[in-house]
Specification:
three-stranded mixed sheet; binds zinc ion; mainly alpha; two-stranded antiparallel ribbon; about 550 residues
Length: about 550
């Protein structure tokens, strides 16, 4: 089954009505797009090699792919410079614009995502530019965050966050929280005004003034302005504040308090079960991950990216009338199982099925907006916190209240980070510890510890300042999409064989061609709203006094 009808229809239409010049130009654009697809593939294959997944691909090693990359990139630049800027069909003009933007992002040096060659130590240097300072700070998550000391042994950041969900004794929880201190210090020193993070966020704000920020882009994609984004985030946080106990909680106990469902299901989700459960669920949704050819690299390795992510290996395209599928890969450092990790793996595979569902001309076989991508990936992953899902895939469930609490205590931290970054980018001289303390104390009832930079837990905060809004605001889109899919197809927490094909047709096939705001407006039949998420959080029930 293929939905790739675009060029065929376009050609029919052109032969009927278009002048010869337009057809010739369209052919030139198509040639350019084929070169573009080669550059894109070479780029993502090199970064896959650098991630350690394999050392050669299709018989070529890194050096050979690097040669292809440089030659094809040069060829692409030449072709793009020769294409006319005027007189193209609307579709061609849009494709050319997209390729010109992407050409600028094909850099000289490719490395695996989140594993830069820079060193954490460099973050102390005053002469680094914005990009280099961010790379140095990302390295801190690998070097320092990968080597934390706890109870006489070594753990990584993910391991310590897992333990914060699990350890029963408050004093040991406090100790594992304290084990993160070297990471916080590497990112934000002693919170002095010229700490590495505070210098970096000032540069981020300056860059945003010139080029726009992640917040600006997410607001545009949601169809609102930044003030409205801030209002939505505050409304979501307020819904949590009102729906949960107002008993003050220490920051090292916040996750524990939310994670009772995780603890009850821990034994049902050993590390080895993660992939089979994940595959089973997607199979039931009509997406056979094995058949889709996705590649997985899920074990922890020294120096490996400190977080889970999904990326293209190759980009799908038509070859002699047959669609060659997108190959996606997932990288993660999973040492353990559990519901939190399983939810994240299902999220990553939400990205996999998103990009493998793209059916479009090469210029648009790329990620959709970050806001859409993160929001969509949670559409299937939120099901893992529904008792019906747990019964089917784990053979064991938890009470709905506990499950919802586990899910939304993770979501609400993303929303808190979103508000934090929005305000930091607006006023970069703000004391980040004071701001984080204010947000978490007011909305999450967390006891103030302004002496600790404990907000510095997410790689995204230094890799792409403002990116957290794609999760925090994205949660509103996730809830909206889940609600709409359920209205049209019915519940899908325990599978629906039509699900993947239907979403491919209605939501995923266009990818970067379509503006997220219009795509979702067409899909939902109205603009995006935070109401579905607010309803979900209110499911947590009224205050338990
Ligand atoms: Zn994601």
């Amino acid at each position: 089954m293929t939905r790739y009808l675009g060029p065929v229809l376009l050609l029919l239409c052109l032969t009927a009505t278009a002048p010869a010049g337009l057809i010739a130009d369209s052919r030139k654009v198509a040639e350019t797009e084929s070169i573009y697809a080669d550059v894109s593939d070479a780029s993502t294959i090199i970064s896959t090699i650098d991630s350690g997944l394999f050392t050669s691909y299709r018989g070529k090693d890194r050096a050979a792919w690097d040669k292809v990359y440089r030659e094809k990139r040069k060829e692409l630049a030449e072709h793009l410079s020769k294409l006319p800027s005027q007189g193209l069909s609307a579709g061609d003009a849009k494709a050319v614009a997209a390729m010109r933007t992407q050409l600028a992002s094909f850099s000289d040096t490719i490395s695996a995502p989140f594993s830069p060659a820079n060193h954490c130590q460099d973050a102390k240097r005053r002469d680094l530019d914005y990009a280099s300072l961010r790379k140095a700070l990302v390295s801190c998550f690998v070097e320092v965050g990968g080597n934390l000391s706890f109870e006489g042994g070594k753990i990584n950041r993910q391991g310590s966050l897992d333990l914060l969900h699990e350890i029963e004794e408050p004093e040991r929880r406090k100790a594992v929280f304290a084990a993160l201190d070297p990471l916080w210090k590497a990112i934000n020193g002693n919170n002095e005004p010229d700490s590495p993070y505070r210098r970096m966020i000032a540069m981020a704000a300056a860059d945003a003034a010139k080029n726009g920020s992640e917040i600006d882009r997410a607001a545009r994609d949601a169809g609102v302005d930044n003030a409205e984004v801030e209002k939505w985030l505050e409304q979501i946080l307020d819904a949590w504040r009102q729906s949960t106990s107002d008993q003050p909680v220490e920051p090292w106990s916040f996750s524990y308090q939310g994670a009772e469902a995780d603890r009850l299901l821990a034994a049902a989700i050993p590390r080895a079960s993660l992939q089979p459960i994940n595959q089973h669920f997607y199979q039931d949704l009509g997406a056979d991950l094995k058949q889709l050819g996705a590649l997985y690299d899920l074990d922890p390795q020294p120096g490996k990216a400190a977080l889970a992510y999904t990326e293209f290996v190759t980009h799908g395209r038509m070859v002699h009338g047959v669609w060659q599928p997108t190959i996606a890969r997932v990288s993660a450092p999973y040492a353990r199982g559990g519901l939190f990790v399983l939810n994240e793996l299902v999220h990553e595979n939400g990205h996999v099925i998103n990009i493998t569902a793209i059916r479009n001309r090469p210029a648009f076989v790329d990620w959709p907006s970050s806001l859409f991508a993160e929001a969509f990936a949670d559409v299937p992953s939120w099901s893992t916190y529904e008792p019906a899902w747990q019964r089917r895939y784990l053979g064991n469930d938890t009470p709905e209240q506990l499950s919802l609490r586990a899910l939304f205590s993770v979501v609400i931290l993303d929303v808190a980070w979103s508000l934090f970054e929005l305000r930091m980018l607006r006023a970069p001289a703000t004391d980040p510890n004071a701001l984080w303390t204010e947000i978490t104390n007011h909305y999450l009832h967390i006891i103030p510890h302004p002496e600790l930079s404990w907000w510095a837990l997410r790689v995204q905060l230094v890799d792409a300042p403002g990116y957290m809004v794609n999760y925090g605001l994205g949660a509103a889109l996730t809830a909206d999409m889940r609600q709409h899919i359920q209205e049209v197809l019915g519940p899908f927490d325990t599978g629906d064989a039509r699900w993947y094909r239907w979403l491919g047709e209605h939501l995923l096939q266009y990818s970067s061609e379509r503006d997220t705001r219009m795509l979702l407006q067409d899909f939902l039949g109205r603009p995006v709203s935070p109401q579905a998420l607010l309803n979900q959080i209110h499911r947590l029930g009224s205050r338990h006094d």
